[in-house]
Structures are given as C-alpha cells and as structure tokens.
Automatic annotation (TrEMBL):
One of its GO terms (molecular function) is enamidase activity. It comes from the Bacteria. It is an enzyme of class 3 (hydrolase). Its cofactor is Zn(2+). This is Enamidase. It comes from Bradyrhizobium yuanmingense. Transmembrane segments: none annotated. The lineage of its organism: Bacteria, Pseudomonadati, Pseudomonadota, Alphaproteobacteria, Hyphomicrobiales. Keywords: Hydrolase. Its EC number is 3.5.2.18. SUPFAM superfamilies: Composite domain of metallo-dependent hydrolases, Metallo-dependent hydrolases.
Length: 398
C-alpha cells in the first residue's frame, strides 16, 4: 500500500532543461516560450531559455530530452475513503496508479463509500474533519488529496457549517447523495457553506448509489453550487435540453467526468464553447465507482474531448489543469512563477501516427508519461500505465 511520500528535508532547487514544449495550463496562453523551468523549495521560480535563467546550485537536474512539460493533472471528482485503499472495488494503491496517469492533485466529492458512513450530523461532521486531516497528513506517492467533503443532511443548521469551516473543512460532498435533494433546502445550505468559505458541488443526473436520486436542472439551478458535478451524468445524464439550460442558466463550473455519458460530455463542451465559456469546463473521473478505478481517466478525457470535440490538444489540457486550479483555488495547475512545482513530463506514444504530442492527442491517442514531479521532487519516472513514450526524460544529477 502506498504510504506517505518523502518530502524535501532542506533547501532544494530543481532544474528541468532541454524541454521541447511547455504547456502552461492557461487558456489565454496555453503554450509558453522556453526550454527550461527552475523551481526552488517546491515553487516555480523561473521559466524561459536556459541561457537566461539562473540554474546554479541545482540539487536536481532533469534533462527533458525534448519532451513536453505540463502542469500536473488535477482530478476534480474522486471518492477517497481510507489512505490508498477503496472498498468500492477493494483495491489498494489506486491513488498511486493515478499518479502514473499524470494526476498530482485530487479533489474529493465526498467520502461516500466509507463502510458504515454516518448520516447523523455529529457523525458526518466528525468524519469530514477526520478525512481532511488524514489526507493532508498522508500523501500517497506525494499526490495532494483535498478531502473531507461531508454529504449534507436536512437536520444541519448554519452553526454546523461554521464549525466545520473552523476545523479546516473546505468542501461539500455532492449535494443530493444524502437527504438534501430539493432546491430550496440545498440553496440555503450551499449559502451557509459559501458564507464560511466552503466550496460546493452538486450531483447531476440520475441516481448513482443507494440513497441518491435524480437531480434535474431545476434543483441544480436553484441550489447554485460552485460546481455542477458531472453534468454529463454519473453515470446517467440529463436530456440535452436540460444540460443546455444549466449551461445557460448559471455561471458555475461545468464538470465533465470519465464515468459519465461521453456523448453528453461532448454536447456540454460544444455548448460551453459556443457560449465562450470554456473556462468553466473542468475534468474529473468520478472514481472509484462501479466502473472501477481509472488511472488514465483524466488523460482519456483530454484525448476524447480533443479528438471528438475538435478541441486543440493544448486547450484540452487546460481543462484538466489551469481551469480546475482557478476554480478550486489551488496553487498548482499552472506553469507560472510562484505556483507549486507540480509537473507531468510526457511525449507522444511510440508509433502514434501524430507528428508530435499535440497532433497525437488530437488524433485520439494517449501520451506516454516519462516522469511526474510534485513540489519539485521527482515522484515517478516511466509510467507503468501509459503506453511507452517516444522520448523520456532522465534525472542527470541530484
């Protein structure tokens, strides 16, 4: 079972040189000019040409060998339980497997698969605080898991949200997975959560687990959560007219998930694009779930949206990085000075017909991952899950 990854014990300086392509994660400028990135003590300190940046005193040097560096991928919708184990599929090391799929940060949409999950107010608050503390202390493989997302119940009052926020809870689990399924009650509680700095997500579409139910456009729009969770269904999506109504009726995040309806995901993407609202689209897997665990789920979403949604690959990667970081108020997900030094280094898969990684992804192929880095520390090298990359980076000194 993957346990807490080592952290830097002293001053550190990472230099990634000989980069072939830098994907920024930002829609407004998805490709950056440069061949070198420097990170000091886990934060990006310089981006540019090797000759123009200070690389002296590096404690780790990575030769990218002409490959692509992108921000570490963010999964906006996971359901963790206890460490790197999920009872949903009785699988261990699932988070570490996601790391091998380029995911360096995860956002909990509720620890709903916890055996015997408490439904009373005292119990659900206690579990939320426990999960928040446990996953920030334990980082499997180094992955940052933002957890502690309680599923709200009708008996809760404003003071409960104030108490949870004071104890570090920053997320709500999917509204609709507990007793709160109507618009007025959801809106009231979402308002309390927002008042105390807690971000909210709503279940959208048909029921997914026992106790959940249909959440349609009327409930979604009235609840006014910060993120419209799996708008393409988890698994069962709403009709197209309802999806369009949600897209047009609010300005909140539109989350597309791997464990949803692919056709509805493409419809949502087209709708958001027509509206000039691509910045609202973020990606998740909604796993572990009945479909299992998808270590390459975020990469597969990027590839699908690019190839079938006719979205330039460099833009598709933004939906899995910078869009989510900005919406979720994270310090990662973008390659810019001051951000966390979380990267995935990749190249087109061997024998892909694409001339380069961007063309390869837009043709529907997955890239090969050669390295992941979190907080400026190399966490994995050649991925055990992706197809082998045409070129791979290497650590040349430490």
């Amino acid at each position: 079972m993957a346990h807490d990854a080592p952290q830097a014990t002293g001053p550190s300086k990472l230099v990634i040189r000989n980069i072939g392509l830098i994907l920024s994660g930002a829609l407004e400028k998805p490709i950056l000019d440069g061949d070198t990135i420097v990170a000091e003590n886990g934060k990006i300190s310089a981006i540019g040409r090797f000759k123009d940046v200070n690389t002296e005193g590096a404690t780790t040097i990575v030769d990218a060998n002409g490959t692509t560096v992108a921000p570490g991928l963010i999964d906006s919708h996971v359901h963790p339980v206890a460490g790197d184990w999920t009872p949903r599929q009785n699988q261990i090391n699932w988070i570490d497997s996601y790391l091998h799929g380029g995911v360096t940060t995860m956002i909990s949409a509720g620890e709903v698969h916890m055996p015997g999950r408490p439904r009373d107010v005292v119990g659900l608050k206690a579990m939320a605080v426990f999960a928040q503390r446990a996953f920030w202390t334990l980082r499997p493989g180094g992955v940052k898991v933002h957890a502690g997302a309680p599923v709200i119940e009708c008996e809760m009052v404003e003071e409960d949200f104030k108490e949870m926020a004071a104890n570090g809870v920053k997320l709500l689990g999917e509204v609709g997975l507990g007793g709160v399924k109507d618009g007025p009650t959801a809106r009231k509680m979402v308002g309390w959560a927002r008042k105390y700095g807690i971000q909210s997500t709503i279940h959208t579409g048909g029921p997914s687990i026992p106790g959940s139910g249909l959440i349609d456009k009327d409930v979604v729009l009235e609840a006014d959560t910060d993120v419209v969770g799996h708008i393409n269904g988890g698994h069962t999506a709403l009709p197209d007219d309802q999806i369009r109504c949600i897209c047009e009726g609010c300005k909140r995040g539109l989350e597309l998930v791997h464990n949803g309806n692919e056709r509805s995901a493409l419809f949502t993407l087209r709708t958001a694009r027509e509206m000039g609202d691509l910045h609202r689209v973020i990606l998740g897997t909604d796993a572990p779930a009945g479909s299992g665990v998808q270590p390459l789920g975020i990469l597969r979403m990027v590839s699908m949206l690019s190839s079938l949604g006719d979205l330039p690959a460099e833009i598709a990667f933004c939906l899995a990085t910078g869009n989510t970081a900005r919406m979720r108020q994270l310090d990662c997900g973008l390659i810019e000075v001051g951000r966390s030094a979380d990267f995935v280094i990749m190249d087109k898969a061997q024998h892909s017909p694409g001339k380069n990684i961007l063309e390869s992804v837009q043709l529907g192929d997955l890239p090969g991952i050669g390295m992941t880095i979190i907080d400026g520390i190399v966490r994995t090298q050649r991925s055990r899950n992706t197809p082998p990359a045409g070129k791979v980076p290497e650590v040349v000194t430490k």
